[in-house]
Amino acid sequence: MKQYKIFVTGKQGIFDPAGETARHALDNLGYTGIESLQIGKYIQLTTDDSVSAEAVKQMCEKLLANPVIEDFSIDETATSATSEIAEKTNAGADE
Amino acid sequence: MKQYKIFVTGKQGIFDPAGETARHALDNLGYTGIESLQIGKYIQLTTDDSVSAEAVKQMCEKLLANPVIEDFSIDETATSATSEIAEKTNAGADE
């Protein structure tokens, strides 16, 4: 079993209506001092061992993210007995 | 300046229509082997130094997440001149 965390965010310069709305609403609630607020997607994907990281990248490009207006990054977190080792060797891929 | 990453996910047992739809669509595209797929929100928040972590938690409870059906977790990542040091000392909090 493999676990992936996928972060989908709007590209630089693309308007984010949900984030803008939340920012104004927080301002109205009295929370000042907010400089920016962007809302993206956080996808938790669990697959069996047959699914490669390359396949997950393709899934993002084809369906989970819109590459025209969104960027994505993928963190792989293996589960089962080898999880801790896998997390260490994968540390370079962290955000 | 402070930066926070907020992850909003559906509570255990709450139906996730977006995730379910994406899972079926991936299946139709030929990507088999997916065991689960959940779609939540990934919020990137930048505030000035006057905003406390407690205030950010309140923002999540009041507006950014729906505590009835969603859980959230907050990662703080300090920026400004001390960003690199802060990122290193904060490495344990990385997802």
Describe the protein:
Two copies of one chain form a homodimer. With 95 residues, the first copy, chain A, is α+β, with helices and mostly antiparallel strands. The first copy, chain A, has three helices and three strands. Chain A has one domain: Phosphoribosylformylglycinamidine synthase subunit PurS (Mth169, Chain: A). Chain A has helices spanning 17-28, 53-64, 83-89, and strands at 2-10, 34-47, 70-78. A three-stranded antiparallel sheet of chain A has the order 2-1-3. The radius of gyration of chain A is 17 Å and the shape is elongated. Chain A binds chain B through residues 1, 5, 7-9, 19, 22, 25-26, 29, 31-48, 50-51, 55, 58-59, 62-64, 75, 94-95, and chain B through 1, 5, 7-9, 19, 22, 25-26, 29, 31-48, 50-51, 55, 58-59, 62-64, 94-95. β2 (34-47) of chain A pairs antiparallel with β2 (34-47) of chain B, so a sheet runs across the interface.
